[in-house]
């Protein structure tokens, strides 16, 4: 059964052919696009890290600050920061 609303669109392909697809571990309704298969929530609380914040993180890494200090200053999670550092390394 397609959940078709005028307001909700897939963030990847902008299709409006959306179906409910369970809940996240926080209890938020999850949706799935029938066109591209992308799973998403309607109003995500976490947003992608923008370019200016990534530049700040790069500068803080060059200053050899600890990862814990960088997470406190920038507000990113320690898990995301470790993933980002690993990507930079490779």
Automatic annotation (TrEMBL):
This protein's name: IS1 family transposase
Taxonomy, superkingdom: Bacteria
Domain InsA N-terminal zinc ribbon: 7-36
Lineage: Bacteria, Bacillati, Cyanobacteriota, Cyanophyceae, Nostocales
């Amino acid at each position: 059964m397609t959940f078709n609303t005028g307001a909700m669109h897939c963030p990847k392909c902008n299709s409006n052919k959306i179906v409910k697809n369970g809940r996240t571990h926080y209890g938020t309704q999850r949706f799935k696009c029938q066109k591209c298969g992308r799973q998403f929530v309607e109003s995500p609380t976490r947003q992608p890290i923008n370019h200016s914040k990534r530049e700040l993180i790069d500068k803080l890494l060059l200053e050899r600050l600890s990862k814990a200090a960088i997470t406190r200053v920038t507000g990113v999670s320690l898990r995301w920061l470790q993933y980002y550092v690993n990507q930079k390394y490779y």
